[in-house]
Amino acid sequence: MHLPIRKRSSFFDCRLSSPIEAAESSRICDDVSGWATALQLIALSARQNTHSAHKSARRLAGINASHLSDYLVDEVLDNVDLATRHFLLKSAILRSMNDALITRVTGEENGQMRLEEIERQGLFLQRMDDTGEWFCYHPLFGNFLHQRCQWELAAELPEIHRAAAESWMAQGFPSEAIHHALAAGDALMLRDILLNHAWSLFNHSELSLLEESLKALPWDSLLENPQLVLLQAWLMQSQHRYGEVNTLLARAEHEIKDIREGTMHAEFNALRAQVAINDGNPDEAERLAKLALEELPPGWFYSRIVATSVLGEVLHCKGELTRSLALMQQTEQMARQHDVWHYALWSLIQQSEILFAQGFLQTAWETQEKAFQLINEQHLEQLPMHEFLVRIRAQLLWAWARLDEAEASARSGIEVLSSYQPQQQLQCLAMLIQCSLARGDLDNARSQLNRLENLLGNGKYHSDWISNANKVRVIYWQMTGDKAAAANWLRHTAKPEFANNHFLQGQWRNIARAQILLGEFEPAEIVLEELNENARSLRLMSDLNRNLLLLNQLYWQAGRKSDAQRVLLDALKLANRTGFISHFVIEGEAMAQQLRQLIQLNTLPELEQHRAQRILREINQHHRHKFAHFDENFVERLLNHPEVPELIRTSPLTQREWQVLGLIYSGYSNEQIAGELEVAATTIKTHIRNLYQKLGVAHRQAAVQHAQKLLKMMGYGV
Length: 718
Hints:
The chain is an all-alpha fold. 74% of the residues lie in helices and 1% in strands.
């Protein structure tokens, strides 16, 4: 009998003196797949000890191993005839089974009839499909049988596994056949399966299985079959083990005769080209990719896909985005045609990055959607590349100020990489810090930065990764005014020779931000003007948008207010294309002051006006400048100021009305003020009507201007 999920939480509560946590009881139920008899045995065993419920729960896993095994031997295995016993033990090596498999593995003449008979006897066999063709054992019973098979049929096991492998191959299931070839310890069978099916399995992301298989083959067997050496190298590449790839290929070339000539060498070069571009060496990557394409026959589609993709990446690095996009679209088409799904995914990710750099964020989003669909359809979730996709989705969400979604996406990227070295998580961690910074949550950002800086000090990273990590560090120093950290970093950081792609633009922007923080306005302006020239030339519109915002901060801090307003207007106009919000928000109060002025002038076009109001709301929400100028201390000093207007002195606002005025000044709507102060919208309307009357103003814009005059009178720069 199978225990329904809804009854699982109460099962142990009714049978144990001290209840266990719901999560623990659910886990135990899952361990036995809800088998009620097994759960009864576990509960009986648990009652025999005097430990706490927590300790009892911890012991249950051990209890079911011993007690259930004894139960199944006594009540099931010893109560069937010898032929049935052997059938159960032999068939237990199969995770799923049908007529052909049973006939081959057990020797039974009519496998389907035997399976149905076992099912009728209640021997824990269950159907897997509506047709009744496929069966499997209850997981708990299957595990028990598999263990007994290893004890009772040890001498026969290799032959049984070979029979299973042959049957699986005959039915077109090479991955299942590999499991049995490995279990049989049959290296020749394993080699033959890999030679015929390994690349198909690789393209369907069966990476762990392939790695285990190749490790089981002797090196001499790989040397006799260079395609398997190439496969092993590609596995290393897919797991970011770049250094090992060239070592393996060099060893193979040294030991395999005449390998340096012909098609195999061209395939090696295509892989080396991929490693070179990953290692930040685009010139070498371009040379090797072109060499590979010259030497590869037309039918060698996999390596041709690789080389084409690498040339697209090279153009990306050179800032030739239109040509790069075309090559990546060609790569996607070729990869889909030949079912090379991980390169189809890679090309979509690259297309998204290019479109983002060009400022077409909505199109980048749609390309990412295609990539997510491909992952779901082809089950590519285990690829490290999946992390890349969720990370660039997080970047896009962050740009649009969808911070909760951006954070969730970055965390899912960390989850994808949970089985890899912690250093692989650097980029997603930087994204989490970026979310904290956009929220103005500096305490959380500092905590995460400690971990990021520890990772930076304990790994070797691509320059793009370092630049992304440095970005959040420099923004944090700007927000906290940490000039010492910025100055120290500026002395030691890399200063690239060029800025002709969005990766290098990012590092130079880091440098300019640090220079602005240190008051080094002249060199920062030179950097930013050159960045803008390159960005305009290469149509790096997202970088141009970012550069304009940094230039705005430079002009603002240098007292060049008209220049600051000019580039801010340009940035707002460009944001109609990029959709940027958070890039404005992280500039904090300086940005808020400028946006208030622009909104008060009431001269912005409709789209820019709407965006400015949205940005201001985000700054107010996350950076907590709401009541800064209208708290009780400020009001007391204001009322005692010799120049305070007589109307305010004779008819002072209540503290709540001052708060409402502060929120009006900060750009809040009536509904937002009501939400912030947790009162009804009608109450807010009453407060606004009263404060308008006391201030002698007739509308919101006049109230904002009045508040601004009061702030200036009190010496605040607005």
